[in-house]
TrEMBL record:
Keywords: Iron, Iron-sulfur, Metal-binding. This is Reductase. CDD domains: MopB_3 (cd02766), MopB_CT_3 (cd02786). It comes from the Bacteria. Signal peptide: none annotated. The keyword Cytoplasm does not apply. Belongs to the prokaryotic molybdopterin-containing oxidoreductase family. InterPro entries: Asp_de-COase-like_dom_sf, MoPterin_dinucl-bd_dom, Mopterin_OxRdtase, Mopterin_OxRdtase_4Fe-4S_dom, Prok_Mopterin_Oxidored, YoaE_C. The keyword Signal does not apply.
Amino acid sequence: MNIQSPIRNRSLGHTACPHDCPSTCALDVELTEDGRIGRMRGATENSYTAGVICAKVARYAERLYHPDRLMKPVRRAGAKGAGQWQDVTWEAALDEIADAFVKAEQRHGSEAVWPYFYAGTMGLVQRDSIERLRHAKKYSGFFGTICTNMAWTGYVMGTGTLRGPDPREMAISDCVVIWGTNAVATQVNVMTHAIKARKDRGAKIVVVDIYDNPTMKQADMALILKPGTDAALACATMHVAFRDGYADRDYMAKFADDPAGLEAHLKDKTPEWAAGITGLSVEEIEAFARHVGETKKTYFRLGYGFTRSRNGAVSMHAALSLATVLGSWQYEGGGAFHSNSDIFQLNKAELMGTAMVDPEIRMLDQSQIGRVLTGDAEALRHRGPVDALLIQNTNPVNVAPEQRLVKQGFLRNDLFVAVHEQFMTETADIADIVLPATMFVEHDDIYRGGGQSHILLGPKLVDAPPLVRTNLFVIEELAKRLGVADRPGFGKTEREHIERMLYVSGKPDFDTLIEDKWLDCQPAFDDAHYLNGFAHPDGKFRFKPDWEGTPAPNKPPAKLGSLGPVKSLPVYPDQVDLIEVADAEHPFRLATSPARNFLNSTFAETKTSRDKEGRPEVMVNPSDALSLDLMDGDVVQLGNVRGELRIHAKITDAVKPGVLVAEGLWPNKSHLDGEGINVLTGADPAAPHGGAAFHDNKVWMRKA
């Protein structure tokens, strides 16, 4: 598995970054003779990672060997959240968890237990095994809504599936449009390939976002628009394409459902109309439309910013439609890409226990955990309470919206919470039992990267501390205690799960992946660019999407139906004010954008990341600061119907007037009053398939 490195007294291990990022970087890891890791580097042999990774992962040893890492199981010894703990053995801790689950089931039925997880690791075995326990025990279902719904839905409404032109084609494009993602901070490899295109070909980099972030500073053309107005820009650009002859009518006649209807719809979607909505000038919109219209090999790299807004599905579909109007899909280095998640075809049925799914079991919304735990009847699907939680790979007391409800729910005296974690997060701090979890170099797993095209093996490289255990271990041990260990899928090691997944999916085996390190699954050019037809039954791109009927990757089960104000979704691409529009009482729009040195709530525990980020701040435009008599560094109060908090103001022209940006995610306790930015974010579902709109909040602001 290891090969000799030129670095003295070290060998080199190969793995994949496990974190919630589309890049899923292939990693080379220095391994010292005493069984520790050193520096991590991007694998130069991997054509997407191309030797480049983000700085926070490069210094991963700081996290792995952090003095505050959890090293042993503990039981709460005082009041919830008081920080009083006593040591407990693994056997006793697991017995106590199982006993609490049995008692909850006896009181209110199996749905009283809610296994709750997310993307703290993207490794399929360690992340998804919790689902097998859920299905075997008929515990409440989990509908994941925090990350992908609006963006994935909007993309699939047009194409019919979640795949696109090879992301490495950015390097041979003549124009790369980075839209809705601060790639320098969140997807560094996008910048690797875009900058290569600029260096080698003179390609232009266009960035569309809501503030002047580090990616904007790399742009040849920078478009800063008001939050939630992306569709207006896309529609005006398509209007110009039809008006000025950039629209590829022959291509649309073959590959699109209703180009004539779209053109008629866009007649009044002029640059002047869009300027009044987006805050861009008419000249900026015209220049953008002219540039992408004249540049056939334009690659639209559409990011996860779309999934943080209530109209995100509509905005994604509108931006995607632009590539079809222009016919960009026909060219190498052209088209529109969001995720390749549908290309990998890994069969996880046994891993997740899908054969044991009971369709009558209720499905609870991940984003509405605050409402669920405080007894909201609609959130509970008009059934009984949740009395017990098992939490892996996520930190809802920091990352979930409607934080005041979340905290209130977790403080219930009748709620039992077990958390399996790497650090004493704010969720762990309020639990009854806390179990120490391995990190990715300490166990076997397998990964797939939606932002690229590889399946990557992540073999164990170093031993875990003596009392630290894997996610799979916890699931297996609870299954034994809860009487379901004889069900299909249980009793396997990580390697056995990986081998089984690969075998039933028709992929190379574990040993082959150890040797090869990854498997490139990128479809052939004509399939990736939809030149054999789009993935709808008639092979046509949908300008007129069937918002409720089209299959989608994260569509809620039939018993939930469509979510959010579905009837307000447009027939054709259009700007729709499903967003929280600023008003007289709430004149500001707040986005909670990601910080460069954190990844959700991960890395907020490491000193280097915290030092580089400084402190929680909200960006305020100078004109807004002047109207409120604010100086840089003053404390302001932000609020809306969900709550209020205090935070330091950073006066900067990086944001437009009326727009506030708070980069994070900082722990709640890092804020002035111990309440973080998600006090202000909402958990109401976005149309049509749910999702939490973290960048879509109207707020008031005053000097504290």
